[in-house]
TrEMBL record:
Naturally occurring in which organism (per UniProt): Larkinella arboricola
Catalytic activity: carbamoyl phosphate + L-aspartate = N-carbamoyl-L-aspartate + phosphate + H(+)
Keywords recorded for this protein, A-Z: Pyrimidine biosynthesis, Transferase
Name of the featured protein: Aspartate carbamoyltransferase
EC number in record: 2.1.3.2
Record pathway: Pyrimidine metabolism; UMP biosynthesis via de novo pathway; (S)-dihydroorotate from bicarbonate: step 2/3
GO molecular function, one term: aspartate carbamoyltransferase activity
InterPro entries given in the database record: Asp/Orn_carbamoyltranf_P-bd (IPR006132), Asp/Orn_carbamoylTrfase (IPR006130), Asp/Orn_carbamoylTrfase_sf (IPR036901), Asp_carbamoyltransf (IPR002082), Asp_carbamoyltransf_Asp/Orn-bd (IPR006131)
Gene it is expressed from: pyrB
Domain Aspartate/ornithine carbamoyltransferase carbamoyl-P binding: from-to ranges: 2-144
Assigned protein family: Belongs to the aspartate/ornithine carbamoyltransferase superfamily. ATCase family.
GO terms (BP aspect): 'de novo' pyrimidine nucleobase biosynthetic process; 'de novo' UMP biosynthetic process; amino acid metabolic process
A Pfam family assignment: OTCace_N
Residues that coordinate or bind carbamoyl phosphate: R54, T55, R104, H132, Q135, G260, P261
Length: 301
């Protein structure tokens, strides 16, 4: 049984295959009849132990466009609240003849733990601060769409790198395709050993914006911070918040991305998020095609 647990162990060819397959599915879902029978008779459970808007709806739509049967599970309101373990929960779902598990969990490595113990495909929809592989794939797809190619592009990931699974998956995904990556944020929000991943580091948002072709902006993940946050959100927005004026004044145009949810007025002003620089809603649109590709390819293996 094959899984998508992270980007780290994918090859460049794996990534290209997923992105090329996604491109075909993007054509399909832009037709008047958006559905294909590819996963008819496959049942998929979306098992979410953490909140989600984009990823959960995007997976569900991808599954429905592929004609799979879909069940949705949220930890809140479930028997997890009565003490049932992750493995018991998933084994009970699988007993109902489910073929694939799409899982989001707060613990890094939870999908890996599961994949060693069950006979169904596991897709990681975000595991704590570790990886969010389908987000990185849809981000690369969106860069390809906008700029033609990922290879040779300079991508600055700006914000709370320390607590971000999107940052780590993007670093792996972009580097495997030949992009250069810079991370930018306050010292307290950059992991100490990030240099070992071969990325540039900046603590100056203007330097990052002047360097890059693409700025992928992340929110501050207050829910993952064990200690009192430093700097405060007010200080963060003062020193790292990106405005439309800052983007308009650059010497050359750059592409603005954000995985969502946006904290408007903190990492991005509304006029920047809603400007012509932004492809934030294109990222969301592309997520459905990319997730269709991942599910379709896993079902073939
Ligand atoms: N980008 C992302 O993972 O958004 P959600 O948390 O809403 O799924």
């Amino acid at each position: 049984v094959r899984h998508l647990l992270g980007i780290k162990n994918l090859t460049e060819n794996d990534i290209q295959l997923i992105l090329e397959t996604a491109r075909e599915f993007k054509d399909v879902i832009n037709r008047p009849i958006k559905k294909v029978p590819s996963l008819r008779d496959i049942t998929i459970a979306n098992v979410f132990f953490e909140n989600s808007t984009r990823t959960r709806l995007s997976f569900e739509l991808a599954e429905k466009r592929l004609s799979a049967d879909v069940v949705n599970f949220s930890a809140s309101g479930s028997s997890v609240k009565k003490g049932e373990t992750l493995l018991d929960t998933v084994n009970n779902i699988l007993a109902m003849k489910v073929d694939m598990i799409v899982m989001r969990h707060a613990s890094p490595g939870a999908p890996h733990y599961l994949s060693d113990r069950i006979m169904a495909n596991v897709v990681n929809a975000g595991d704590g601060t570790h990886e969010h592989p389908t987000q990185a794939l849809l981000d690369s797809f969106s860069i390809q769409d906008k700029l033609g190619d990922v290879a040779g592009k300079r991508v600055a990931i700006i914000g709370d790198i320390l607590h971000s699974r999107v940052a780590l998956s993007n670093i792996f995904c972009l580097q495997k395709q030949g992009a250069e990556v810079m991370v930018c944020g306050p010292t307290t929000l950059i992991p100490k050993h990030i240099n070992e991943l071969g990325v540039k580091v900046s603590h100056d948002v203007r330097e990052a914006l002047n360097w890059c072709d693409v700025a992928n902006v992340l929110r501050i993940q207050l829910e993952r911070q064990q200690i009192k946050y430093f700097p405060s959100l007010r200080e963060y927005s003062l020193y790292y918040g990106i405005t439309k004026k800052m983007l308009d004044e650059l010497d050359r145009p750059i592409v603005l991305m954000h995985p969502g949810p946006i904290n408007r007025g903190v990492e991005l002003t509304s006029d920047a998020a809603d400007s012509h620089h932004s492809i934030i809603l294109d990222q969301v649109e592309n997520g459905v095609a990319v997730r269709m590709a991942v599910l379709y390819l896993l079902a073939q293996m």
